[in-house]
């Protein structure tokens, strides 16, 4: 992503609106124009995180001169024009006035986002609009690619041909079916080979929203479906280690939920945001997001959903090394789970059963360093998991292997690790690869224990996950 080197206006001189830049945006919304900027960046090999807020800051004159990455993108978009033509001040005029130094051409980026979107900052939601385009990443291999071939762009035309026919119930149903297909494929094969393919139906879904539905009920279905699709694609990014992209997708879903007043979608977006924050090493954000999810979900009447959200909160407390907070959240999760299923349970929660409850609890105890409890719950999770969920079986077994290794049982850990290696022939998940790598490091001093050498040798020969 572009580094945070754009120069804001100085406090002692009020910003002057950039009318030239506003004119080149034309009739497009800030979000639509931001999408064009990101697409232009991809065309020349740049990565910028342009969003509606960035466009607004430029037009307000808060950004007097863009950084080098944005400069290259803007000059590519508007051949023959200079930065001055686009309403920016010369770079020489803003250097040395409190601005952070701009990176030279070709320098490595120093920050993930130009202006990170905080999904917990409710004020910022009013200024965010849904993205239209998405980056495409890796291509998978083997069985995953064959399965992912079923994910087309919904067979929907875009552009002028899409505008000629307003979307109806059949298009809304196609978006909903794409969500189900992605979830089924992820359950079976993991995320790594699916992300690029899944971006295609997401682009198509947002093209449908841009076209505008003729009926309010259809529009509501499309918004809900596009939001759920953004979360599904975000999860694929999350599970394959692309945390920045996952955060963007989840934020998009949250903005859609807020714009349409959809508490179910809002709870789902916050739920995944909490999980991502935990994995990205931001436990306090994980707690806040999980609590926000619970506030959104409370009127929905689903005890199972509230149980899962309590587990998300527990994971955040564990990351903060707050054993009491974690245990209290785990008790709530178990009590709510015990109330059973209901008609109010969201469709996307089909994965959440006893196995997932045990698996997430195992992760909490592992984070707290209680390997014995973690081992017990991870073993139960792997035993209870439905065979259809190949990825989760591999995940829980990898968790078990790591907990056993850290609890001083290298032989059992190696046996569990070998089971995971067998499953990786059909499951592609960077998360699982990362867990196995950690287990291998713990087992290195125990090579003479039964099965450990075999596990270490097979793990060492494992192809590294491909990244796009």
TrEMBL record:
- Family annotation (InterPro entries): TPR-like_helical_dom_sf (IPR011990)
Q: Where is this region: Disordered?
A: 1-21
Q: Which domain of life is it from?
A: Bacteria
UniProt cross-references to Gene3D superfamilies, sorted A to Z: Tetratricopeptide repeat domain
Please identify the protein, giving its name as recorded: Tetratricopeptide repeat protein
């Amino acid at each position: 992503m572009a580094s945070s080197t754009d120069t804001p206006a100085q406090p002692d001189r009020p910003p002057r609106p950039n009318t030239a830049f506003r004119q080149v945006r034309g009739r497009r919304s800030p979000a639509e124009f931001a999408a064009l900027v990101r697409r232009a960046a991809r065309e020349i090999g740049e990565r910028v995180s342009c969003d509606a807020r960035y466009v607004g800051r430029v037009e307000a004159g808060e950004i007097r001169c863009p950084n080098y990455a944005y400069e290259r993108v803007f000059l590519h978009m508007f051949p023959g024009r200079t930065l001055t033509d686009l309403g920016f001040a010369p770079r020489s005029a803003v250097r040395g006035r409190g601005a952070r130094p701009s990176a030279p051409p070709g320098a490595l980026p120093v920050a993930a986002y130009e202006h990170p979107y905080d999904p917990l900052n409710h004020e910022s939601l009013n200024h965010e609009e849904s993205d239209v385009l998405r980056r495409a990443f890796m291509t998978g291999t083997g069985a995953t690619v064959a399965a992912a071939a079923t994910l087309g762009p919904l067979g929907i035309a875009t552009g002028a041909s899409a505008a000629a026919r307003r979307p109806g119930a059949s298009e809304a149903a196609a978006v909903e079916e794409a969500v189900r297909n992605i979830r089924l494929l992820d359950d079976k094969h993991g995320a790594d080979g699916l992300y690029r393919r899944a971006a295609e139906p997401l682009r198509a879904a947002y093209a449908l929203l841009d076209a505008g539905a003729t009926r309010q009920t259809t529009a509501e279905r499309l918004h809900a479906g596009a939001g759920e699709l953004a979360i599904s694609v975000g999860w694929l990014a999350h599970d394959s280690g692309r945390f920045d992209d996952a955060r963007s997708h989840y934020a998009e879903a949250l903005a859609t939920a807020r714009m349409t007043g959809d508490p179910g979608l809002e709870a789902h977006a916050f739920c995944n945001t909490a999980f991502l924050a935990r994995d990205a090493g931001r436990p306090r954000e994980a707690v806040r997001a999980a609590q926000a999810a619970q506030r959104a979900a409370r009127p929905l009447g689903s005890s199972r959903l509230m149980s899962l959200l309590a587990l998300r909160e527990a994971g955040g407390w564990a990351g903060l090394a707050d054993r009491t907070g974690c245990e209290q959240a785990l008790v709530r999760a178990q009590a709510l789970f015990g109330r059973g299923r209901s008609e109010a349970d969201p469709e996307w929660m089909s994965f959440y059963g006893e196995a997932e409850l045990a698996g997430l609890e195992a992760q909490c105890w592992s984070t707290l360093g209680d390997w014995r409890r973690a081992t017990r719950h991870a073993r139960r999770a792997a035993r209870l998991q439905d065979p259809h969920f190949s990825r989760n079986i591999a995940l829980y077994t990898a968790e078990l292997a790591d907990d056993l290794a850290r609890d001083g049982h290298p032989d059992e850990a190696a046996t569990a690790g070998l089971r995971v290696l067998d499953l990786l022939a059909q499951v592609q998940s960077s998360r699982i690869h990362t867990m196995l790598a950690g287990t291998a490091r713990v087992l290195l001093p125990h090579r003479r224990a039964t099965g450990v050498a075999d596990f270490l040798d097979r793990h060492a020969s494992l192809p590294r996950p491909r990244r796009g």
